[in-house]
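Sequence in, structure out.
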Amino acid sequence: MNELLLSQPPLGMSKEGEPVWELAYFYPPQGHWTEKEYLALEHNRFLVEYDQGYLEFVSMPTREHQRIVLFLYRLIWSFLEARNLEGEVLTAPLPVKLWEGKYREPDVVYLSEAHSHQVEKYPSGADLVIEVVSGGVSDRYRDMVQKREEYAQAGIREYWIVDPEQERITILHLPEGQAAYAVHGEFGPGEQAASVLLDGLAVEITAVFAAAKV
């Protein structure tokens, strides 16, 4: 057990109707989580990401959010199958290691043949990731600003930001030898968004957001 844990929780801490605060004493304090302890959570009900010893709790997805995720997952899966391409496409919850001490859980992850043959339980890196923006201001900042920087730093070659509020998809790609993403395009209703990495993969924006309203 982590040596920083308190030896015994105080009696009578939790009251009826409150969270069971005593459970916190079974886990390390913030800033002292190890990767092993984070991965052992298996996340259960929560979407949790890991950043240098800290846990970040992400808003639970809505039905509309999940419909968009499934639509895009099926789009990429069908594309790979039709062309008999190696690799795989997966969805959250799935921790993706960006670098030592840093994990994120993209909504959709495409792993090329090189990445999909990794033997680790959780992938290190990816080739294309998709985030469907949801939640409040902090969630939007995380997906649009923070993860944009992190995914580029991790060398992920393409990042799609899907914004249901604005009905817009932004596709970012990482030019060879560059450390920051370039904007391939921002696409709205009536337009078609096309991947840079997966030549021939394209999607009608109207269809993406219509899928959320089924």
